[in-house]
Known about the structure:
The chain folds into two domains: 98 residues, Phosphorylase Kinase, domain 1; 195 residues, Alpha-Beta Complex (Aminoglycoside 3'-phosphotransferase, Chain: A, domain 2), CATH 3.90.1200. Helix content is 39%, strand content 13%. It is built from nine helices and ten strands.
Amino acid sequence: MPSTSEDNTSPAPLDGRAGIDAALVKRLIATQFPQWSDLPVTPVEVDGWDNRTYRLGEEMTVRLPTAPGYAPAVAKENEWLPRLAPELPVAVPPILGLGEPGAGYPFPWSVRGWLPGTTADRGRIDDLTRFAVSVAEFLRALQRCDATGGPLAGKQSCYRGASPAHYDEETRRLLAALAGQVDVDRAAAVWEAALAAEWRGTPVWFHGDIAVGNLLVADGQLSAVIDFGTSGVGDPACDLVLAWTMLSGASREAFREAVGQDDGTWARARGWALWKALLLVSQHLGGNPELATANQRVIAEVLADHDQHSHTT
């Protein structure tokens, strides 16, 4: 990424991710958290799309949203993560400071404690079935947290926790575009079942993006869950998609049993998984065929799961 001038003039406003670099982070820290200004700033090895993250010394990170739509999550996470953390069985990001716009950077940002561990690649997990149960136990604990006053599902959560019907038009457009790439008729049946299984439960906390990149592993076991940017209070179905994106066979069944959701929630979860996998297939067919194929496999797993379980929904 291009570096930003470090002279004493005021930099021009930054354009999202293109203007975020270590030099900017150093300036922000120097002006807003001078007690940490002598610490080195280095990019993390695996970064996200919604936010840029940098190591600050050995014990902290700096996290900066890349676009206006991601900025509100800073205040949400800073308010709620400290409340949720004591109730959860594994670590979540500890909040150490809230930064303000400055040095040409237009959004709020945060300083957090560094969580040791690596992303949950299968090769780093000692026992995938035990891992699946640990994720389920985390989700059950999250759902038990007091949801009073929590951020309701909707625009702030990219509609995770709301009805998958928000993505109905896009999903139908994707189905039409991917005829010949996926089994459109069976996929449409999964989508219709998801829409029909309307959620009428009591709102609970959901994470919104339970994915490999947001699950950390240490010593072969789940050690932390990160990135609560799409979290909120609503329907927990969106948190079940890991069943098809990472788990299979015995680990999937162990997750299904341990997470304890009803058939309608699983039907909506299949809808969430289908929508996202269709979107990724569409985006990557031309440029990244390996990723497109991986998501075609996810779709096939979702369709098979629907065929197996739909008679009970």
